Amino acid sequence: MLTGKQKRFLRSKAHHLDPIFQVGKGGVNENMVKQIEDALEKRELLKVSVLQNCEYDRYEVAEELSAGAKAELVQVIGHTIVLYKESKENKQINLPS
Questions:
Q1: Where are the domains of the chain?
Q2: What Pfam families does its record include (predicted)?
Q3: 73 contacts: CB under 8 Å, gap ≥ 6
Q4: CA angle at residue 72 from 43 to 37, to 5 degrees?
Q5: What is the pLDDT of residues 62-86, one digit of tens each?
Q6: Global confidence as pTM
Q7: What is the mean pLDDT of the chain?
Q8: Dihedrals phi, psi of 21, to nearest 5 degrees
Q9: Domain 4-84: which topology?
Q10: H/E element, 49
Q11: What is the spatial distance between Cα 29 and Cα 58, in angstroms, rounded to a whole number?
């Protein structure tokens, strides 16, 4: 679990990122979760955009993505979800303790 301090740190890091995935009408599927998992392994921190036509609540989408990709949900702000997962091979972010 992330502490409040770590979440604040990650939010400041994520501020400059652009969303690289979009969840639309079809919601979350296995393929998307797999791609997000792979992207998290490379980047550790990423944003996902929930489109207006998505039939699911953005918090449901956030839960599904973080559970599916075994990632930490950092933040849901507007229609943007911020996810973090420590990389096994490409560790770039050192979290404050």
A1: 4-84
A2: CRS1_YhbY (PF01985)
A3: 62, 63, 65, 66, 81, 82, 83
A4: 45
A5: 999 999 999 999 999 999 999 999 9
A6: 0.93
A7: 95
A8: -130, 150
A9: Translation Initiation Factor IF3 (3.30.110)
A10: strand 45-50
A11: 15
